[in-house]
Write a structure and sequence with these properties.
single chain, 494 residues, mainly alpha, Helix Hairpins, 2 domains, 11 helices
């Protein structure tokens, strides 16, 4: 199949997206207290500004009550200390306590500069309210403790007429009443500070989670490493983690779908190639079927010719047998002719002797036997010619007999060869019959195979149509998987 790797190489897989996006993440997540540091620094700045306002207020009050020098010195010292702490440790726990102490002392300076006027005790409640910015109950408790110590201590020192003021006149019951109000407000503010701190931590954690999620063009779901402590943050973190896990599963499923669709495409291509091979096989089978049919026809023709040749060989053997018999008859006739020529030769010899005797007798008879002598001479010459002809005939008969004998030998050999040829022709005919039967069976088998292959070709054509549809579906599935991978690739999952 085509490679399930050309498309995968162009589509970002979830793991690739995770790796590319993970490089943008910080090595370590910030702690929640670090995220609150900006609020603490802002609170320190507000408290520093409050110090300057409070110092100016203290100087103004002192100008009314004619104690400007001491108040100004104390305010300047507190401003110097507060500014130094702010510059050195802004946003730290120490700075919050130090600036709180400076502001508490400035409120104390207001009360002292006003000779204990009750109206300036409102600064205590104002400052305690402003300390809610720190969202730290410890700072509130520290400030309340300082105010409690100041009220009790200065009230007793004022009662001892040592030149310090907490109220216009020493009154411990009034101080206790003030303490009750301070305790009530401090308790409420501590509750509010705890709630505000939880809300601030929760907001910081939610902002951290949202910041991790929003990564420009990417959406980060890797929030497991963010330290959270609030229920809402934990719930959101767990929900996003579940979403990330679901998207990981979706990414894996999309990758599997992409791989499966690529395998389907490859399988369809392979099946198409197999279909083409099958079509070529069908064409070859048709050629083989035609060749086997022609071979069967040729085998039938060869069987007919072999039978004809076997019949002809048998007829030839029979004819040669007749020729051999005829040659034997000719040989016997030649022997009889030889005997006849021998008898003719004897008759000619006797006739020659008789003619010779007749010529002798005619010579003895003189003139009376002259005519008979001529006849006798003629008869003698005729007898000589007859003898010579008989000798010639004997020679010819002898030669003919020899030739006939040789012919009989040749005919006998030919008869044997023709008999063997007839036997071989018979065996060849039998073999060709068997070949013809086998060729017929093969032709039937090949025809059946051809029918099966034809059926298979039709099924393959139908499968080809299904393969084409499957290929379109697989391509569409790959497109959907690619789009799904692209969507999942926009999320940072790990």
């Amino acid at each position: 199949m085509p490679s399930q790797q050309a498309l995968l190489a162009t589509v970002p897989t979830p793991r690739a997206a995770i790796v590319s996006a993970s490089s943008k993440l910080p090595a370590k997540p910030s702690r929640q207290l670090d995220r609150l540091k900006y609020a603490a620094r802002l609170s320190d700045l507000v408290m520093l500004c409050t110090m300057y306002v409070s110092a100016a207020t203290a100087v103004g009050i002192s100008m009314i009550f004619y104690e400007t020098g001491l108040v100004a010195v104390c305010a300047a010292v507190l401003l110097l200390v507060g500014t130094g702490v702010y510059a050195a440790a802004r946003g730290s726990v120490f700075s919050s306590f130090a600036l709180t102490a400076c502001n508490v002392l400035l409120v104390v300076l207001h009360i002292q500069a006003s000779h204990g006027q009750l109206e300036f005790h409102f600064g205590v409640f104002v400052l305690l309210g402003m300390l809610l910015m720190y969202r730290d109950w410890r700072v509130l408790l520290f400030a309340a403790g300082l105010f409690a110590v100041h009220h009790v201590l200065f009230d007793r020192l004022q009662a001892m007429a040592l030149g310090v003021y907490c109220t216009p006149a020493p009154d411990f019951l009034r101080i206790v009443l003030h303490a009750v109000y301070v305790v009530i407000q401090t308790g409420v503010e501590i509750f509010l500070a705890v709630r505000l701190r939880h809300a601030a931590v929760e907001a910081a954690e939610l902002l951290a989670i949202v910041g991790r999620i929003d990564q420009g063009t990417m959406i980060g779901l890797d929030v497991e490493r963010i330290e959270v402590s609030e229920p809402t943050s934990r719930t959101l973190q767990a929900a996003i983690a579940k979403m990330g896990g679901a998207l990981r599963e979706v990414g894996i499923a999309a990758a599997q779908v992409d791989q499966a669709s690529e395998q389907i495409v490859g399988g369809t291509h392979t099946l198409g190639e197999h279909a083409q091979e099958l079509r070529r096989t069908v064409a070859v089978m048709e050629e083989i079927t035609q060749s086997v049919a022609e071979a069967a026809d040729t085998a039938n023709l060869a069987r007919t010719l072999a039978r004809d040749a076997s019949s002809t060989a048998q007829e030839s053997s029979h004819a040669v047998s007749q020729v051999e018999q005829t040659m034997q008859g000719i040989s016997k006739s030649s022997e009889r002719i030889s005997e006849i020529t021998t008898m003719i030769d004897g008759i000619a010899f006797q006739t020659n002797i008789l003619a010779l005797n007749a010529a002798v007798e005619a010579a003895r008879a003189g003139d009376a036997g002259r005519g008979f002598a001529v006849v006798a001479t003629e008869v003698r010459q005729l007898a000589q010619r007859a003898g010579s002809a008989a000798k010639d005939i004997r020679g010819l008969i002898t030669e003919s007999t020899d030739r006939v004998r040789e012919g009989m030998q040749l005919v006998g050999a030919a008869h044997g060869e023709i008999d063997r040829l007839a036997d071989q022709s018979q065996r060849v005919s039998v073999l060709i019959d068997e070949i013809s039967v086998a060729a017929g069976n093969q032709a039937e088998i090949v025809n059946r195979v051809g029918e099966i292959v034809g059926d298979l070709d039709r099924v393959t054509q139908q499968s080809g149509e299904l393969v084409s549809e499957s290929s379109h579906v697989a391509d569409h599935l790959q497109d959907q998987a690619a789009r799904l991978n692209a969507v999942v690739g926009r999320f940072v999952l790990s």
